[in-house]
Automatic annotation (TrEMBL):
SUPFAM superfamilies: Fibronectin type III. It holds the Pfam family fn3. Residues 1-16 form the signal peptide. The keyword Signal applies. The chain crosses the membrane at residues 296-317. This is Fibronectin type-III domain-containing protein.
């Protein structure tokens, strides 16, 4: 039991030392090279330095494996304050658009036999692909399209429209130039693009080597979509405030000069690229908006004053109407009273006359 514990402790210590030898292994891929970076403890640096083993990862396994030594040099060793040292190494002469595996391990002594089965679980391995060709469309017009192709520096290949004749639809690289991007303008009619009412499609072929097609050759489809020329932008109306420059917004109709415009992207010219006439028009529009914002409160005040005057007139008319109606009521009451009194006197006289007649008749009978 004691022997088993001692053996297990020794294996754990050896495994821990191997793991802590290399830390934070990272890589920065490029077109034909990769830069590796890792850290090592001060007391864990191997005497013979490090060794980087890199292989191409294909479908059937690792191919074209190579080794590169990394020694502890002043320009490669970067000291740090937390008892760690940083190492940087550049692995060059790689193939474009290829996946590689990079393994960092301690350099074996001269004459020692390398055992591939030893330490496979504790070695630091990173897998990354190198960069390949890429393309993107920068402009889509009814008559032509402009694409930008990233090829990397010292490109000696060719960029051409597939199945197109003539040099107007192709572009050759410059082997001595460090530029890494090329711009190709495609004439839809001359280069044989597929054009319909809404889309334009063009196939572009990018080759690393002119005579043959390699694994890095890429075929891109440049597809542009269009929509009708007129767009209407509707905006809401906001009430004016005390701050200057805030007023109402009206509907604006935007029209393009071409028959179609690009659907996926609408580019506005920069302010510095616009002419002086456009800038003067913008200033005039701002001044008109400010004057409109100032005139609106004055108009509202005038409307309120008119409404107040109308209200006062209505109140005066109403008071005069009430007074006239009261006077008419008094006149009707007095006329009724006089009529009633006249009728009473007449009745009295009639009663008296009837009494006299009855008396005369009585005397006559007697």
């Amino acid at each position: 039991m004691l022997n088993f514990f001692i053996c297990f402790s020794a294996i754990s210590a050896a495994f821990g030392n191997n793991v802590s030898a290399v830390r934070n292994l990272m890589g920065e891929p490029d077109y034909r090279k990769v830069r590796l970076h890792w850290e090592t403890e001060l007391n864990g640096i191997p005497q013979n330095g490090y060794q980087v083993r890199f292989c191409e990862l294909q479908t059937w396994g690792m191919q074209r494996c190579r080794n590169q030594k990394v020694t502890e040099q002043e320009d490669n060793n970067l000291p740090r304050e937390d008892n760690f040292k940083s190492f940087d190494v550049e692995i060059s002469n790689l193939r474009m658009a290829t996946k590689y595996s990079f393994e960092v391990r301690a350099q074996k002594e001269n004459g020692s036999r390398e055992d591939r089965a030893e330490g496979d679980n504790s070695e630091n391995i990173i897998v990354m692909p190198t960069k390949g060709f890429s393309a993107r469309a920068t402009q889509c017009l009814p008559q032509a399209s402009v694409i930008e192709v990233s090829t990397g520096p010292y490109f000696r290949g060719r960029i051409a429209v597939e199945a197109a004749d003539g040099e107007r639809c192709a572009l050759d690289g410059e082997p001595t130039s460090p530029r890494d991007t090329y711009t190709l303008k495609i004439d839809h009619e001359k280069c044989g693009s597929q054009v319909n009412e809404t889309t334009v499609g063009t196939f572009v072929l990018v080759q690393e080597n002119l005579p043959i097609l390699t694994h890095s050759t890429r075929r891109f489809l440049v597809l542009c979509s269009f929509q009708p020329e007129t767009l209407t932008v509707r905006a809401g109306i906001s009430l004016p405030t005390n701050a200057l420059g805030r007023g109402q917004s009206d509907a604006i109709a935007f029209e393009e000069g071409d028959n179609y415009m690009r659907r996926s992207r609408h580019l506005r010219p920069a302010r510095l690229l616009q002419g002086p006439d456009a800038l003067d028009k913008k200033d005039e529009i701002k001044q008109e908006a400010r004057s409109t914002a100032k005139s609106i409160p004055i108009a509202l005040l005038a409307v309120l004053m008119v409404l107040g005057i109308v209200g006062l007139v209505c109140a005066a008319v109403r008071c005069s109407t009430k007074r006239i109606s009261k006077e008419m009521d008094n006149v009707s009451i007095s006329s009724d009273s006089s009529t009633a009194s006249y009728t009473t006197n007449a009745d009295v006289e009639a009663d008296a006359i009837s009494t006299k007649d009855s008396t005369v008749n009585a005397n006559h009978l007697v």
